Amino acid sequence: MDKDTVSLATVEYQTIGEVAGPLLFVSKVKGASYGEMVAIYSVDGSVKYGQVIEIAGDLAVVQVFGPTAGLEVKRTRVRFSGEVAKMPCSVNLLGRILNGMGQPRDGGPEIFAEEEREINGSPINPWSRDEPRDFIQTGISAIDGLNTLVRGQKLPIFSGSGLPGNELAAQIVKNAKILGGEEFAIVFGAMGITRREASFFQESFAQSGALERVVFFLNLADDPTVERLLTPRCALTVAEYLAFEHDMQVLVILTDMTNYCEALREISTAREEVPGRRGYPGYMYTDLASNYERAGRIKGKKGSVTQIPILTMPDDDITHPIPDLTGYITEGQIVLSRQLHRKGIFPPIDVLPCLSRLMNLGIGEGRTRGDHRGLADQLYAFYAEGVDLRRLVAIVGEEALTDIDRLTLKFADAFEQNYLDQKDENRELEQTLELGWKLLSMMPKESIKRVKTEYIEKYYSPEKAEDIVVSSS
Questions:
Q1: Whole-angstrom distance, CA of residue 385 vs CA of residue 130
Q2: What is the DSSP letter of 462?
Q3: What is the pLDDT of residue 108?
Q4: Is domain 87-361 classified as CATH 3.30.200.210?
C-alpha cells in the first residue's frame, strides 16, 4: 500500500458539496480511485458504505449503498478505504443466504474467507477460454429437446409480468445435472424481488433438498436500489471461485435483470447523464456484458460457470432495450408465452422464438443421441406449420383445409399438451426423445423430411402415437 493510500485510510473528508439521490459529491479529495470503497459517518453515529463511481479532478462521486435521507451535507464525514469492493469466498458459502453485498442475512455465523476477491473479476483470456460443451439436463423437454443448454453457456429466460419465470428457475435448480449424474452447485442472485418471491425460492430449495448446494444472494424490493448493482457481481465472483478453484460445475441464476437495469437507469439519472434508448444509459450494453461474459470454461480446468439470467420483458416487448441487448450478448434465449400460460401449460415456453446457439456442441452421437438434432428440427417444423394453420383457419375456416393440414393442426395441439406441458414432472432425456417420436408418429412417414432415414426406420412407429391424448383446443 503506497503513501497516498495510507493517508486516505486515515484522513476523513467533510467536504460534501451535494447529495443527489443515492450519490454524494465530495470535493477536495486527493488520490481517490475508481471503484474504491468508502465509509460514510452521519451525525447520529450510524455508518453507511459506498463506492467511488467517478473521479473528476479533486471531485469524487460516491454511490451510497443505502438511503441518503437525513445526511447533513456540512456535518457528514467520508473516509476512503483505499481498496475496491471484495467478496469473501469459501466453499462454506454453500447453503447460506446472503444480502446483495455478500453479508449473511440468514442469522448464521460470519463468513470465514478462504480468499477475498474483487467483485468486478477479470475477463477470461480468450486464448484460455474453452468452448462450451456437454449436455445439461434440466428435466424440461422444451429446453432439453429443442433448445439444449450446454456447460459454460449463457442462456437467458425472457419472461413477462405474471408469467412463471421464477417457477421455471426453481424447477431448473431442482433438476439440473450433467449426463452421468453430476449435480451442480447453484449460485442464485435475486435482485429487487418481493418477500413473497423470496419465501417461494427458499421453500422450493428446502423442499427439493437443493438448498445445501445453493449460495443465495438476496436483494429484496425494499433493500437499497444501489445494492442491486453489486448482487450479480458478488454472485459471479463466488461462482468463479467454486468453479475454477474447486473444480465444481456451477449454475448461476440471476433474477430479475430488469430490476438490475432499472437500478442502472436510476443511478444514471442521478448523475445527469445523457440518456439512451428509453432513458437507459448508453453504456448498459457494456455493463450487462461485464456480467454475462463471466460465464464459460477454462482450458485445463474441470469446473465451469453456466448462466441463466431471467428478465421480465416490459409489456411483453421483446424489442425493449433490456431483452434486445441481452439477446445480442448471450447465446440464445428461452421465451415464455402469455398465450400458452392462459391455456394452463407449464412451463409456457414458446419454442418458435426460442434459440440455443450452442445446442449442436452438446448433442449428437456420443453426447445425447444421433437423432437428437433431426428430431428437434422436425418437431419445430411441424409445430410452426400448425401455428400458421391456426391463423389461416381463423380467416377461411377449417373446411378449406386438406386432410394433412387437419392432421398438422392436431399435431400442434398434441405438441403443446403433451410435450410442452409437464407441470412438475422431471423428464429424463430419453423420455423427452421418445415423446418426440410418439408425436412424429402421428404424421405420415413420407412427410418427415428432416430426420435421417436410418433413424426414421428405427424409431418411427404409428403404434406409439396411440398413447398421445389430444383435447380440443
A1: 38
A2: T
A3: 86
A4: no
The single-letter code of the amino acid at 418 is N
Output the pLDDT for position 123: 76
Reading the block at residue 76, the C-alpha cell is 457528514
Inter-helix orientation angle 321-329/257-270, to 10° = 110
126 by DSSP, 3-state: which? coil
Q: Which CATH number fits domain 3-83: 2.60.120.510, 1.10.340.30, 2.40.30.20, 3.40.50.300?
A: 2.40.30.20
Q: Residue 321: in which H helix or E strand, if any?
A: helix 321-329
- Regions in the chain scoring below 50 on pLDDT: 1-8
Task: Supply the pLDDT for residue 211.
Answer: 87
Q: Is the dihedral of CA 141, 142, 147, 151 positive or negative?
A: negative
Check for a shared fold between 3-83 and 87-361: no
CA atoms of 295 and 85, how far apart (whole Å): 21
Domains of the chain, residue spans? 3-83, 87-361, 372-467
H helices present in 21-76, as ranges? none
Provide the grid cell at 242.
Answer: 467454486
> Using CA atoms, how far apart are residues 148 and 361, in angstroms rounded to an integer?
9
> Beta strand 332-335 with 355-356: parallel, antiparallel or unpaired?
antiparallel
Could you tell me how far CA 86 lies from the centroid of its own chain?
Answer: 22
Angular region, 237: left φ>0, alpha ψ -120 to 50, beta rest = alpha
Sign of dihedral through CA atoms 31, 32, 33, 39?
A: positive
What per-residue string of b and e applies to 224-243 under the rule 16 or more CB within 10 Å gives b?
bbbbbbbbbbbbbbbbbbbb
State the cell numbers at 467. 398413447
Phi and psi (nearest 5°) for 409?
A: -60, -45
What distance in Å separates the CA atoms of residue 471 and residue 473, rounded to the nearest whole number? Answer: 6
Residue whose C-alpha is closest to residue 236's, from 157, 289, 313: 289
Q: Would strands 133-137 and 149-151 be described as parallel, antiparallel, or unpaired?
A: antiparallel
Q: What is the Cα–Cα distance from 367 to 359, expressed in whole angstroms?
A: 11
Query: φ, ψ for residue 438 (rounded to 5)?
Result: -60, -40
DSSP assignment of 377-442, as one string?
A: HHHHHHHHHHHHHHHHHHHH-GGG--HHHHHHHHHHHHIIIIII--TT----HHHHHHHHHHHHTT
* Cα dihedral value 367, 370, 373, 375, nearest 10: -130
